[in-house]
Amino acid sequence: MTTRAALPEGIEAAYQQVQARNPGEEEFHQAVKEVLESLGPVLVKYPEFAHQKIIQRVCEPERQVIFRVPWQDDRCEIQINRGFRVQFNSVLGPYKGGLRFHPSVSLGIIKFLGFEQIFKNALTGMPIGGAKGGSDFDPKGKSEHEIMRFCQSFMTELYRHLGEYTDVPAGDIGVGGREIGYLFGQYKRLTSRYESGVLTGKGIGWGGALVRKEATGYGAVYFVREMLKVRGDSLAGKTCLVSGSGNVAIYTIEKLAELGAKVIACSDSNGFIIDEKGIDLDLVKQLKEVERRRIADYAGYRKHARYIAGGNIWDTPCQVAMPSATQNEINGHDAATLVRNGCIAVGEGANMPTTPEGVRVFLDAGIAYGPGKAANAGGVATSALEMQQNASRDAWSFEFTERKLDEIMTGIHTTTYETAEEFGARGNYVVGANIAGFIKVAKAMLALGLI
Ligand code: NDP
Fold first, then answer.
1. pTM here?
2. Who lines ligand 1 at CB under 6 A?
3. Which of 2, 205, 375, 419 has a CA between 20 and 30 Å from the CA of residue 432?
């Protein structure tokens, strides 16, 4: 359940309408409320946003597609999943946002992610609108052939809604390079076009861009680096926790280590490992990226490491926490534990990983708190760089692309920091990200008329 706190005058009605129109979609309500809570001062400065009902319009997706995904498993049994694509806002560019394959996927989850994506994409400064999609398909335990058949069936419906100038999906939970390959292959087959720019996160050698795989994790670390810099501090020597052990977690760990921090724990949905000597990332990559095994197996290779089945990673003392698994993984109690144990910075690689109660704890404690909307925008920003390279038939070097990613993340930090200051909330990146993202979208919506 989302908690009820008073919303600024005039905005409460819009929020109630969202609740009434989208019953039972708790995560979507939570994401909307978190943005609306920041917008009171914006409507004072820009009364035209209220007159033109920008808030009400931005909360309603431009288009929502829900479809059947039939496929056959290896025993020739018919399976049926549900597919989604919520095309939320295209005022800044073609719809852009990942696809998530996870059994917890529902319309409300996709809407929360799509809503966040609008403002995140605006913060990157790139010409991309906001969308999200996915399916309640569970890739765990499926064979290679089953994954391929599912992806082909999923794309057989989705392709008609996509296009490099229309909607450009990427990966998210359960969708990595392998799945993007199968999805792209089916799109190509259905359309008879080699339209590289229709999906991002592609493999290097068939339209993919260097640094895309690393971008979300690296970018989140850059954001934390910038938050600490403002406080006259750095990542060097800091003890860190990173939840998850998927794409975002792995490259968060990699960049933290590169900048001199020590990551001592990571996790999956079954438990977490502690390695006081510092996580052996080559081992994690081998287990997760190559062999697709569970993080528990790590302890079998590093004798001094411990695996805590069903444990809570946030109970471990640290100075920097980077949630990189899923939504609402840090609640108010976890946040209080982190702060009590000496945590001074939180950078969200995952989307909405902290509950509203947890966010309040971080803000009240005055620690450096980088919300996902800003901190994990490096992934989609680098997807936009992949689109640029596809459009110009070019391929940039790793160093050049990483420098661009660093510039974009440093720019997002500056924008969110300065916007928070301008609106009287110094150091509050939640307010800074929500307001800066919203104003950019709202101004474009005004310019384009009643759409
Ligand atoms: P992956 O599928 O590569 O990895 C997800 C990781 O999180 C796995 O270790 C998984 O464990 C764990 N996890 C997933 N669901 C749960 C759950 N319900 N409870 C506990 N652990 C869970 O996904 P990504 O790394 O791509 O995504 C991680 C987060 O980052 C998501 O919130 C995503 O929206 C966000 N994000 C991703 C971007 C990207 O570029 N990929 C861009 C911006 C944000 P298990 O294997 O046990 O399920």
1. 0.97
2. 171-174, 176, 216, 244-249, 268-270, 324-326, 349-351, 376, 379
3. 2
